[in-house]
């Protein structure tokens, strides 16, 4: 769908330079999604793996975030192998609703209520990032935290449209449950893509 070089705004790698490759196609359908134009894979032009790698390699940052839509709707093996061969790190952002494919240096799992994450993705996640839309989401976050590995980092992130009301609740929750961390969409606060 699109690609751009910027600063990772969320989660464990927030603040780091990264090249983003946003793939078209999503069947999860979150009503608060901020990139609904990514849902229809056929609405976006196709590019070759070689083109994507060449564009990512043109920047000094050595990390590439594969996101969507839902990137695991695609076989990501050829793309991640080529990125690794070019000396780039591969970071995945996924809902985990589809089988894991590709070779990953970092997997950020952001499960959605609309389509449950698969056990194989839960087991491989380095980071669990739960978007909090209302206070009932804390219990849902805990259910998923019980399913990831012991070294998986746990993040709670306010949904951007409700950040003013959710963030204070989220801060109090993290203070009471310190194994969690707050993740903010810092790129939105900084007004960068």
Automatic annotation (TrEMBL):
UniProt keyword S-adenosyl-L-methionine, yes or no: yes
Keyword ATP-binding applies: no
Cofactor dependence: S-adenosyl-L-methionine; [4Fe-4S] cluster; Mg(2+)
UniProt: [4Fe-4S] cluster binding residues: 26, 30, 33
Residues involved in S-adenosyl-L-methionine binding: 32-34, 69, 110-112
Pfam families, alphabetized: Radical_SAM (PF04055)
GO function terms (MF aspect): 4 iron, 4 sulfur cluster binding; carbon-nitrogen lyase activity; magnesium ion binding; S-adenosyl-L-methionine binding
UniProt pathway: Purine metabolism; 7-cyano-7-deazaguanine biosynthesis
Annotated binding of substrate, by residue: 7-9, 22, 67, 193
Alphabetic keyword roster: 4Fe-4S, Iron, Iron-sulfur, Lyase, Magnesium, Metal-binding, Queuosine biosynthesis, S-adenosyl-L-methionine
Quaternary structure annotation from Swiss-Prot or TrEMBL: Homodimer.
Protein name listed in UniProt: 7-carboxy-7-deazaguanine synthase
Species name: Hymenobacter busanensis
Designated gene of the protein: queE
